[in-house]
Amino acid sequence: MAEVRLEGISKAFGAQVAIDDVSLTVPDGAFVVLLGPTGAGKTTTLRLIAGLERPDAGRIVIGGHDVTALTPAERNVAMVFQQYSLYPHMSVRENLAFPLRSPVCNLPEEEIARRIGEVAEILQITHKLDNRATALSGGEMQRVSIGRALVRDPVIHLMDEPLSSLDARLRADLRIELKRIQKDLGATMLYVTHDQTEAMTMATHVGVLDHGRLVQFAPPREIYEDPVSIYAASRLGSPRINILPADLFPGAPAGAESIGLRPEHIRLGEGQEAQVVRLEHLGDQTRLHLRLAGHDLITLVAAHADLKRGDSIAVSPQTPLYFDADGNRI
Amino acid sequence: MSGHSITEPTRRQKWIAAVLVIAYTVIILIPLLWIISTGFKSPSDAISYPPKVIFTPSLEGYVNLFTTQTRITPDMEATLPPPETWYERLVREKGMVIAGPSRYGQRFLNSVIIGFGSTFLSVFLGTLAAYAFSRFRVPIKDDLLFFILSTRMMPPIAVAIPIFLMYRQLGLSDTHLGMILLYTAVNLSLSVWLLKGFIDEIPREYEEAALIDGYTRFQAFRKVVLPQAAAGIASTAIFCLIFAWNEYAFAVLLTSGEAQTAPPFIPTIIGVGGQDWPAVAAGATLFLLPVMIFTIMLRKHLLRGITFGAVRK
Predict the structure, then answer these.
(1) In CATH, what number is assigned to the domain containing residue A11?
(2) B224: which chain A residues are within 8 Å (Cβ-Cβ)?
(3) Does pLDDT of B242 surpass 50?
(4) Is A328 domain-assigned?
């Protein structure tokens, strides 16, 4: 376990800038989630730390040592890929043993067997150890590939959307399991996802990437409540934050161009009149789609709210977020 | 649409398909059966007209294939001890004796050395080249690949004369090494292109995972890429072997003794008083076996190999 630090890292593929001057510190034992849409540079960041790509500029420091010029094998990092995570020509046991038998690790066989037993126990795959890797279900495969990272005791675990190919229920189960394992082991993790639930529930810190730039790095609560820009604010929260012209409501500060309203920022019952456009019943709550002076607005109401299409309802902001013309927070 | 879909043929369609396939197979197999049966005929049965389908089997062809014989006069025969083995007896009945082994065994061995040697080399070099083309940023990669393929754009025999002269200068004529190099050169374009297709299909993530797991690039290649490319390597090897094994024109041109392979040798088997067809057929029959055995051994991979790479998921 160790602290991982990126110092002014840039990386371009031809004319395409993937990472633009990113500095970031993953504290020892932290669970850092990188958030951003496809193409924001999340995966490239992981690959740079793993050593699968060389940065064009900047340094990568792991546990106080500059590893920028080292090969992946010399860095002692573990990585879980989104897909193709297991060696298909090996059994589950051989897959788990593979990193331990590497020339870098080269452990005695008893130790390898002991560690595999331990990890198999944690991940509940003991009965599958002698299966072929290809004979597993999607969830089992992903558990084994997480296991392949766990057997090793690396300085950092890099995870590239490890749960994205799984169905919703399995994803929810593994999310909790993964967080528990990370806590128990005190492992340092850098986790890439575009799923905000994963970010909110697992992260100690969230890094928001936008076109290769790190726009905000903070605990998830802080990013949710105190985002630096519209972009960062839009990464977290469901339904998404509503962005409306600031002059729609009185009381906007000078220079404010937009007002950002999360459901909890919207008080119903007083203020401007809005029309109910649609109601989405989600069971435990209801999504309320409103039309306010030509703008769409989505908020949440109680499951059995007494509203229907075409009704009028008054809305007003309550401690909202304000942004300037460039989308930056005021 | 009518009651059934394209994917589910009716009974009738299945019958028609089966009959066609069986008819085709029989037609394809007739020359092969002809050769195999001729090998077991006596010389007179072999050339009788109309051809005999039912005949008394004889091993004379095989004995003639493996031995050289001389004619002896009856008084000379009287001085010889009686024949000891079944094949000596067979030869003695024709008024001849075995003078020694023929050159067939040695030619066959040459075919094995050259065929398998060039196959190994083609696949070995092809795998390394294909891996490099598939994974690394090779300068002018596309031009190089096209250049490699372009060696196949003419029949290899078109360059027979330059190669003949070159080999004479270099002392490679009629050597095992010369033939192995030649067949490897011809097969290499095929093997690079085929194997590149197979290796392209193996996701890079596996090697990257191995690199992170603590292995070097070469170890990752050996432990992760090679096992997964096994099907492709096996089918490529079969294609290379079939070419090198059956190649006739260069073998005639460049080999005459030391390194002569079986294909140019078999037609030169001459019996007493005309072509010895049963011996020729026997030689051809035995010549079929190694490729057949090799193909059957790798059959499982071959079928996967042919469909693999062609189909995208």
Answers:
(1) 3.40.50.300
(2) 87
(3) yes
(4) no
Do A31 and A168 belong together in one domain? yes
**Co-location of A286 and A193 in the same domain:** no
Chain B interface test: which of A87, A142, A190 (most B C-beta within 10 Å): A87
Per-residue pLDDT at B312: 37
- The residues near A142 (Cβ < 8 Å, ≥ 6 apart) are A80, A85, A162, A163, A165, A166, A174
Q: What is the mean pLDDT of residues B35-53?
A: 87
Asked if residue B277 lies in contact with residue B46, where contact means CB atoms within 8 angstroms, the answer is yes
**3-class secondary structure, B113:** helix
CATH code of the domain covering residue A304: 2.40.50.140
Q: Which two tokens stand for residue B19?
A: 């009959």
Tell if the CB–CB gap between B208 and A51 is shorter than 8 Å.
no
Q: What are the E-state strand segments in A81-230? A: 156-160, 189-193, 205-210, 213-218
**Residue whose tokens read 């902001």:** A317
pLDDT confidence of residue A51:
92
Name the one residue in this structure whose structure tokens are 């001849």.
B96
**Helix or strand or coil: residue A113?**
helix
Which sign does the torsion angle of CA A56, A62, A64, A65 carry? negative
Query: Is pLDDT above 80 for A1?
Result: no
For chain A, what is the domain count? 2
pLDDT tens, A128-139? 888 888 888 878
- Rounded to a whole number, what is the distance in Å from the CA of B205 to chain A's nearest CA? 6
Residue B2 pLDDT exceeds 80: no
The pLDDT-based confidence of B82 (bands split at 50, 70, 90) is: confident
Are the Cβ atoms of A71 and B211 closer than 8 angstroms? yes
CA proximity to B63, closest of B94, B33, B34, B32 = B94
d(CA A167, CA B192): 40
Radius of gyration from C-alpha coordinates of chain B: 26
Beta-sheet strands, E only, within chain A: 4-13, 16-26, 31-35, 57-62, 65-66, 77-80, 156-160, 189-193, 205-210, 213-218, 242-245, 258-261, 266-281, 285-292, 295-302, 312-317, 321-323
| Residue B311: pLDDT over 50 | no
Place of tokens 């030869």: B91
- Contact criterion met (CB below 8 Å) for B69 and B98: yes
Would you say residue A74 has pLDDT above 70?
Answer: yes
ipTM of the complex: 0.81
Nearest to B123 by CA among B216, B236, B200: B236
B211 and A73 within 8 Å at the Cβ level: the answer is: yes
Burial class (CB in 10 A: 0-12, 13-18, 19+), B10: exposed
**Residue from the list A52, A89, A105 with its beta carbon closest to the beta carbon of B214:** A105
Residues in chain A: 330
Give the nearest partner residue to B212 out of A79, A83, A89, using CB atoms.
A79
Tell whether A165 is covered by a domain: yes
- Answer with the residue of higher pLDDT: B257 or B129: B129
Domain limits at A305?
242-247+256-323
Distance CA B235, CA B122 (A): 12
pLDDT at B4 over 80: no
